[in-house]
Structure formats: C-alpha cells, structure tokens
Design goal:
- Two copies of one chain form a homodimer.
- In chain A, about 35% of the residues lie in helices and about 25% in strands.
- With about 325 residues, chain A is α/β, with parallel strands linked by helices.
- The interface between A and B is large, with 48 and 48 residues.
C-alpha cells in the first residue's frame, strides 16, 4: 500500500503528465474500455458540507477506485484549510486490495485544467491567437496556465463578475509572456478560445458574445441548476463532453436539453475525437463547445500517474497494510 | 492520518466492542441521527469482481466515511487471498480531511455477527435455550460465536446444504462448551433462536420449520434475487431490520413484499426497539424476524471503534498526509 501525501503532489505532478492521463482516459471512456460509477453526493447536514464519492474503472489502464471528499464551505474561514477537500483511493483490480492513497486537492485542480486543455488540443482552430477567460478565481489560473500550452496564443482577455479578481489571471498571462486585457462580455467575440470557469447559477456568456470559429470550454457547471453560458449557444455549437450522461443532467447542457434546443444525440464524447471516430471540428467557422463536467476516472487517472512518479522518485510512503 | 492494517484487527477488536458499536449506530439510524448513502455496487467486468462503496454519516457519533471493496471470486484459488476484500476510510466531518484507513475484512465479519447478536439481545425470548444455525460456512462461525454470548444457550443445532461443513460450527459450540446436533430443516422447530447465514437464491427454511416464539435472524440476503427463508414466514412474523429501504429492495423482505404478503409499513427498525420507541417482542409465542441487510454505517462504527483501540494501544500507524 502506497501513500502520496497532498504536500508532495506539487513537486511531483506535471501539467504534461496530467494532460496525458486525462487524454488517455477520455479516449478509453469513448472506446468503452473505461466507465464511471454512479456518483454519490450528499448534503450531510454538518458544517454545510457536501460529501461524496466518484468512482470508476479503466479496463485499459487497469485503474480502479474512487475520489472521496467534497466541499466544506467553512474550512477557510474557521480553520485556514481549503474548502474543497478530497482524497483518491486506488485499488488493485486483480484482487480488490487497496493499492494507494493520494492527496486529491491539487490533483483535482490539475485534472480539471487538463480537461479543457485536451478539448482545446482536439477542437480549437490551429491558428487560435486570442484566449478569453470568463472567471478569474483560483481554478481559473490552473485552466489558463494549462491552456496557454496548447496553441501559440498572443493575447489573453478576461472578464470576471468581480473585476478586482482579474489580476489572478493577468499574473498567469504575464508569467507566460502574453499580454492581458480586461474586457466586457461582448468583448469576448475577439477570442478564438474561451474558457468559462465560474460557479454561477445564471449565464454570463451569451451566444452573441461568441464569434464563429471559436472553441468554448465550459468548466464550471457540475450541479443541477448551475449555468455559465446561454443555452442558445449550445444550439449554435457542436457540443462535446467528457460524459454525456453527466452533461445532460448536471453539466452545462442540462439547460439546452431542458429547453429542447438540443438532444442527447447532439452531444459527442471528446474521447471519440481523440480516438478519431468523431471528426471533431470540420470547419473554421464552426463553434465547438466542450461541456467539462468532471468525472471520477479523471481523478483516478491523474492519481495513478502521480503514484508512478512518486515511486520513481522514491517519495511514495510504503505502508504494510 | 491513522492507519490500522488488516493484520492488527484480530488482536485489537473484541466482540464486545463490535456489539456496542453496532447497537449504538442502529439506535442512531432509528432516531434519525445517522443515515446511509446510496450504495454503489458494480460488476466491473474484470476477474468477475463486484466492487463498490457503502458510505454514511453518523451525526451522533461524528463518524463519516465509506467502506470500499467487494467480492473477487478467484482470489482464493488463484492467489491464496480471501475473496471478500474491503477497506474502511474515515473522514473528519468537521473538515472533510481523510482521518483513518482501516482493514475491513475481519471487521465486516465481526459487524455482521454483531448485527444478529443485537437482534437476539433485543428480540429473542429471555429463556431461549436452543440456537439453530442454517448455514455452516466461515461467516456462520462468527455469527454463532457472537450469538452464544446473548442468552444461556444449552444446545446448538445446525443444518447446511453441504453437511460436511457442519464441523465448522460444531467446533464453535464445543469451544463454548455447548453440545451440538446436526438436524434436518424440520428439526429447526426445536430452536428458540435461528440464524440463517447462507448465500442462497432459493429458500431453505420454510415457515413450518419455525416454532412459535422463535427469533429468526436472516443474515445472508444482501442482493436482489437472494433468498434464505420462505416468504410466508415473514407474513407470520414481526419483521425488524437494520434499514427498511434495503430490507424491501435487496434484503430478505424483498420476496414477501413482491408477493404482497407484507407491506413496507410492517417492517420496523431494530434501532427503534433499542431506543424504546418500538416495543419489540410483546409475547412469548410471537415469531420475531430480523432482516440483516448490512449497512455502511455498521462498517464505519466498528472501524471507528478499532481506531480508538489502536490509538490507545499505540498500534495505529501515523502518516503525515
């Protein structure tokens, strides 16, 4: 039994390794080699916490297990701890024995960033120059940092409901040597790629804020009721997702589906594009939209990768279990 | 973060501690202080394994977490490992951080044995003298050993589909200094308490095999389709369970419910008897029946108890996580 504590993850895990792990497991999901289990998510009636389990099995990568944890909204204020707390547990699929326990907090941020990057690699125009950020919180910095590696972006534009948070992403742009500009939402028509990463319950980005040819990654909606973009945008776009079942129920597509603007069959798995069984973008003026809902297999994939890295570097703690 | 490996459990955990933990959490479930999450159970399509998660939260005991694992039918033959493999993970309900990891194999056997014992304590006649075992496998030895502590039993009678396994329980009876006798199923009318612990898909114990005044604990049925006793027996008995929702769907009561012999309202939580809000047995010729389906909170309760014992004895492995 191997343990990789949270504090070791930052030095171990690379954006490249997270990208490869997530790309591979999206492909395995689309080919039927990997599947996610039903999600358990409970408001436990204590500390206003949401707690649950996201599990899955990747027959190709032989990765079995779950991420357990959730959202403790009072952690930061009361205890100086981050509000999202999670741990990944991997099991040996040959025997059912616990194999590894891995801190899941930073990994969750990295796998979410990797998901939008995978969508950019496979769906954005090759000549994309301007990337737009809707949202400028902590997670937005991860999304932008990873996205900047996917195309030769020459400019970052950003909008946030609280403009005083924009320096978060301006700093990431500066680190990458890319100029940053704050814009209003209609200004997003300048972008070739847009990442939306908010926890809003009403749309900010409207269909008319998105120019033809843009790739939009909606990364914030993971719950019934949340919404980042106008439902009409999904009708105008070619829609892709990590997992269709989540996309239509708790993802960004829930609203376009409910309003009858698109059907379940209109949504394709991004893994099918990776595998080459779906053509993905077929023209330069097509809008592509990735509904990133977040699945347990992503967590297992990056945790498995970090365990391998920790073993190689002699950092994994071995416990006789 | 504390770790209690599987190999330490046998020396740490007592039947008394398991009994107390299970009795307390059944009471908390009935009073609404504790609840189980939806169960995830998946045939993963690898090694014929069934894998999943049973979680819950006990607001009274502040126990939060899950048991993960399942059934790997080829373990013993292929690898010399036991087929049931599980691990319990406890979380701090105040913060969401992982708190303890505990080997769950022996604990599962002990908590299952504790459940029938709790039902015997609260539902069997005080003057019960003869205990009958239907089933004589590995788990039957745990059930019998724990049950013998609940009344002044003077005789053990036993039946098993494969009679060559009866020495398993005969040995437990001998250890306790109680005579053992193999019987056929009609011979079970001699018993004051009957524990059924098989993994059958058709009933062995029929209503006419059970005398008035008997307490029956059905401990083997935890899946749709399994059945240990004739459905008519439930119509004749006062039926109790750990959790009503499981009892009617995957427990022994599923068949009596499906056949319209009893209704959901006819089934009471054994925790209500513990709490005194249900009178339990009200006459000496009443048949009481406990449908023990097995809930995640039992696993969490015994794991929490064993962590306390391990800390007291300095055996818990501390890992900086």
């Amino acid at each position: 039994m191997l343990i990789v504590p949270e504090k070791e993850i930052a030095d171990l895990m690379t954006r490249d390794a997270a990208f490869d792990a997530v790309e591979k497991v999206f492909a395995a999901m689309a080919s039927g080699d990997a599947y996610n289990f039903p999600v358990v998510r409970e408001a436990i009636g204590h500390e206003d916490a949401l707690y649950g389990f996201k599990g899955g099995f990747d027959r190709a990568g032989l990765t079995l297990g779950l991420k357990a944890g959730g959202y403790w909204p009072n952690n930061l204020e009361k205890r100086g701890l981050i509000n999202h707390q999670s741990t990944v547990f991997l099991f040996d699929p040959d025997t059912g024995k616990a194999k590894a326990m891995v801190g899941g907090n930073l990994l969750t941020a990295l796998r979410t960033a990797a998901a939008s990057s995978v969508s950019i690699k496979h769906l954005a125009r090759e000549d994309a120059k301007v990337i737009g950020m809707v949202g400028a919180g902590h997670q937005a910095t991860f999304q932008l940092r990873a996205a900047l590696e996917q195309r030769n972006f020459e400019k970052v534009i950003g909008w946030n409901y609280h403009p005083e948070m924009l320096p978060n992403i301006e700093k990431v742009a500066a680190e990458a040597g890319v100029p940053f500009e704050a814009v209003d939402l209609p200004g997003m028509t300048e972008a070739d790629v847009i990442i939306s990463i908010t926890s809003a319950f009403a749309p900010s980005l409207m269909a008319d804020h998105v120019a033809p040819g843009t790739h939009v990654a909606c990364m914030g909606t993971d719950t019934k009721g949340k919404q980042e973009v106008e439902a009409a945008l999904l009708a105008r776009a070619s829609v892709f997702t990590d997992e269709v079942a989540q996309s239509i129920s708790i993802g960004e597509a829930q609203h376009a589906i409910a309003e009858g603007l698109i059907k379940e069959n209109d949504i394709a798995q991004v893994g099918a594009v990776i595998n080459g069984t779906n053509p993905g973008r077929t023209s330069d003026d097509q809008i592509t939209l990735f509904d990133g809902t977040g699945v347990g297999l992503q967590d297992l994939a990056v945790a498995d990768a970090v365990v391998d890295l920790a073993v190689k570097k002699g950092i994994a703690v071995k416990v006789d279990f």
